[in-house]
């Protein structure tokens, strides 16, 4: 059932004249068979994207196209889309099977055929044998599988997932992520999903569009967003923890951490250095390869790993750097440590996090510099 292509162009929604738009000139391509995530904090406009796409709300401006066809004026049930919400919204008086068969029955498919198809989709979501049960008897995770089976049974050109796994606990969420990955391999659906969880976007999507205050801030593969956020807003949304204010001069960021070479040429001026905590290596304070030396001021455990906050006192003040330790290693509060900050892991963004502002000249405008500095 390969899905269709979805193209959102200049989508804008103003609820009340004179107020900022809930969504402002939002454009996004979701190629056939791909999964694109819209990642944003609460109130950023994620649901608005889905509501406009599904036809549940009218755009103030802009278009929604599926396979090149403009859907303006097309009612939700004729858009070839199916949506899964955070709550499964199953019909409580129907069995699991009849919930899944519902769309077929409405389309006039004979009961027997619809039920057989429903069983097939229940197999796909690993609920074979559950068809005759009342939905009341299901767990939250199973209910969400039924909701997914019901959406897939409608054979949508585009599947919309609205925080579909957010209400599940971590283990179930991971199971659903695995299930969705399997379904993508087998059915090749086109998926547009929204989430506030960067780990979920990372687990599920081919590309991610970061939304904040109704505007698209950055789009790309998660790996490149982690490594090269365009603004503080994006860095924070992706769980970035280290932000060191300073000034760029001659390709180096100067701050209490010292003058650190950057991986790309960046214009001179005030800028915030961001470094992923996973990329920082914590060593001994006498490590000759350490870029900076500081003191652990806070340590906490995250599963097998520990996360430490290291305070560095340098020229012009102090700064803190967050670092994740190697599994099994330990760095208690008060310990002096060295930090290696690989050049490729350093990145700078504009000081105000003025989202939307280019952080640097267009890619390719300058050569990469790979030399290390202390
Ligand atoms: N019907 C409406 N009337 C007025 N304002 C609205 C309406 N729907 C949404 N908004 C506003 O538009 C903005 C975007 O809302 P939206 O629900 O799309 O955000 P969201 O990112 O999905 O948030 P959440 O994750 O909390 O659901 C918010 O400021 C919200 O208050």
Automatic annotation (TrEMBL):
<keyword id="KW-0408">Iron</keyword>
<dbReference type="GO" id="GO:0005524">
    <property type="term" value="F:ATP binding"/>
</dbReference>
<keyword id="KW-1003">Cell membrane</keyword>
<keyword id="KW-0547">Nucleotide-binding</keyword>
<dbReference type="GO" id="GO:0015418">
    <property type="term" value="F:ABC-type quaternary ammonium compound transporting activity"/>
</dbReference>
<dbReference type="GO" id="GO:0016887">
    <property type="term" value="F:ATP hydrolysis activity"/>
</dbReference>
<keyword id="KW-0067">ATP-binding</keyword>
<keyword id="KW-0472">Membrane</keyword>
<dbReference type="InterPro" id="IPR015853">
    <property type="entry name" value="ABC_transpr_FbpC"/>
</dbReference>
<dbReference type="InterPro" id="IPR050093">
    <property type="entry name" value="ABC_SmlMolc_Importer"/>
</dbReference>
<dbReference type="InterPro" id="IPR003439">
    <property type="entry name" value="ABC_transporter-like_ATP-bd"/>
</dbReference>
<dbReference type="InterPro" id="IPR027417">
    <property type="entry name" value="P-loop_NTPase"/>
</dbReference>
<protein>
    <recommendedName>
        <fullName>ABC-type quaternary amine transporter</fullName>
        <ecNumber>7.6.2.9</ecNumber>
    </recommendedName>
</protein>
<dbReference type="GO" id="GO:0016020">
    <property type="term" value="C:membrane"/>
</dbReference>
<dbReference type="Pfam" id="PF00005">
    <property type="entry name" value="ABC_tran"/>
</dbReference>
<keyword id="KW-0410">Iron transport</keyword>
<feature type="domain" description="ABC transporter">
    <location>
        <begin position="6"/>
        <end position="238"/>
    </location>
</feature>
<keyword id="KW-0406">Ion transport</keyword>
<feature type="compositionally biased region" description="Low complexity">
    <location>
        <begin position="352"/>
        <end position="365"/>
    </location>
</feature>
<keyword id="KW-0813">Transport</keyword>
<dbReference type="GO" id="GO:0015408">
    <property type="term" value="F:ABC-type ferric iron transporter activity"/>
</dbReference>
<feature type="region of interest" description="Disordered">
    <location>
        <begin position="352"/>
        <end position="374"/>
    </location>
</feature>
<dbReference type="InterPro" id="IPR003593">
    <property type="entry name" value="AAA+_ATPase"/>
</dbReference>
